[in-house]
Amino acid sequence: MVVLVSGMIAATPRQGGAAWALIQYLLGLRRLDCDVHFIEPIAGDHVPQTSLSYCSEVMERFGFADRWALVPLDAVEPAGMSRERLRRLARRAEVLLNVSGMLQDRDVLEQVPVRAFVDLDPAFTQIWHEAEGVDMRLDAHTHFVTVADAIGRPGSLIPDCGRRWLPTLPPVVLEEWPVATRLEYRALTTVGHWRSYGSVRHGGVQYGQKAHSLRPLIDLPRWSAAPLEPALAIHPDETDDLAALEANGWRVLDPDTVAGTPDDYRRFVQSSWAEFGLAKSGYVLSDSGWFSDRSACYLASGRPVVAQDTGFGRRLPSGEGLLAFTTAADFAGAVDDLERDYERHRVAARDVAVRHLDSDRVLGSLMEELCR
């Protein structure tokens, strides 16, 4: 089966974690004997050299050297493969997994029979489309997949946009994420953006970013028995927030340094004691059930995760290896529990990944549903 995957790797080079979110799909589908290719749209009329070099390196690193294309929105010819080869590939393809609906190329969208919009930003995607009138390109797709489980549930705050949404979990390729043995950061770490995009308001609720989740928890290091060392992309103009983080005992790391490439990102995750799973406030307030592809990597590595509660407990076991928190007191209790019996939580973390997040299981189920 020929499967196309579209998403963002090259447009913002040196974001190793963002690359891994797509690499898990590519490698996982290949494990299922799919003939997998990666296609990424690029704004403008050409592909910048930095984007071209980064994508080429990543694709070659994971065995996709001749299986990718970067498609400028305002140019005819892609990079990585010719336009004619892209057309032939689209005619053979049976499934397109289009992350965030980014790919708009008609040569692909008009040929592939199963076109799945893969939503990684639940609440934001649907509110942008339903309440703010933003064209999220839903109409170009035949199926709708989301990493949330709340959409369509009775009482959900997230509009369904008149579509049936298929919930999934982030896949992790277990052979790429073995149980880690090296510990460099005796701390709770994470990788992320202080702000990713604008917040949205819907039904009287403000759905915000990680900045809005962390500010009420700014004194968290004072509660925690272990240090907090997040790798956060935060603009230097955020002087008030940077000062508050420093004053309250956070050690903010540079994500470009520790996680700029997929290999750097993997080393950082696997050499951390545990994850501080901070979520965008929009995911939390909507009770979306969102769960992080980053947390999946920590769990697979046998590194426990203390994650902000988004409702993920409806699908994943919580209490050993994966612990949910809402308040600072919850967080402190979870960290104390890790300190008391870290090895038990390490074993449990890997077990959660094996039983629930293994790419064979997650992607096998997803493909079965899409191809019915």
Could you please describe the fold and organization of this structure?
- The chain is α/β, with parallel strands linked by helices and 372 residues long.
- 37% of the residues lie in helices and 19% in strands.
- The protein contains 15 helices and 14 strands.
- The protein starts with a strand and ends with a helix.
How would you briefly describe this protein structure?
With 372 residues, this protein is α/β, with parallel strands linked by helices. It contains 15 helices and 14 strands.
List keywords for this structure.
372 residues; alpha/beta; Rossmann fold; seven-stranded parallel β-sheet; globular
Could you give the topology of this structure?
Layout: E1 2-6, H1 16-31, E2 35-42, H2 49-61, E3 68-72, H3 83-92, E4 95-99, H4 106-109, E5 114-119, H5 124-130, E6 143-146, E7 165-167, E8 185-193, E9 200-202, E10 205-207, H6 210-214, H7 220-223, E11 228-233, H8 239-247, H9 255-259, H10 262-270, E12 272-277, H11 281-285, H12 293-300, E13 305-308, E14 322-325, H13 328-340, H14 342-357, H15 359-370
Parallel strand pairs: 1-2, 1-4, 2-3, 4-5, 5-6, 6-7, 8-11, 8-12, 12-13, 13-14
Antiparallel strand pairs: 9-10
